[in-house]
Amino acid sequence: MSDPVPDPEASAQSPVTKPQIPLTFLLVTGNRWTLSFDPEETIGRVKEIVWNEWPADWSAEQPPSHSFLRILYLGKILQDNATVASQFPSSPASTSAAPTSSDALATPGAAQPTIVHLSVRPFAPGPEDDIAKSKVRRRGAGGASGTSEEDGSRAGGCCGCVIC
Q1: Percentage of the chain with pLDDT > 70?
Q2: Phi-psi bin for 108: left (phi > 0), alpha (psi -120 to 50), beta?
Q3: CB 33 within 8 Å of CB 25
Q4: Which residues of 7-146 form beta strands (DSSP E)?
Q5: pLDDT at residue 135 in the model
Q6: CA 23 to CA 83: how far, in whole Å?
Q7: What integer pLDDT is reported at residue 100 of this predicted model?
Q8: DSSP E strand boundaries for 39-85
Q9: What is the average per-residue pLDDT within 120-149?
Q10: Are 90 and 27 within one domain?
């Protein structure tokens, strides 16, 4: 005789497919790229995924790490700890009774991608030594000659003027 009770291990092996939220990333250069994410993913994790899967033909635009990426939606920079589901609509445009022309072109039941801007923060300046060297070069270019002690005493100025 067979047991009519379903096996709990068998039901655990068949995962329930969660709806993915498609995002189209738009760079300042005009390049677009669409990826889909789980609703529970954090924005910080999305940045990591985007950086790790960066297209090879965009290598000139890739920052040194994912921390240089900013995702903007509706004019706001999204925080790393927010989830994808809390920031973006997850349901397809099936709430309207009459489909629009753009809905007619889309596949039935598929969510339209949400367009977000992907901003790459400027890279950090080099070590502090490089900044100090550039300041010394600027002081020397002004034509003022003096000893290193004088340079230290008038660190804010570049021309060596004395006002009494």
Answers
A1: 54
A2: beta
A3: yes
A4: 21-26, 32-37, 69-73, 76-77, 114-120
A5: 56
A6: 13
A7: 42
A8: 69-73, 76-77
A9: 57
A10: yes
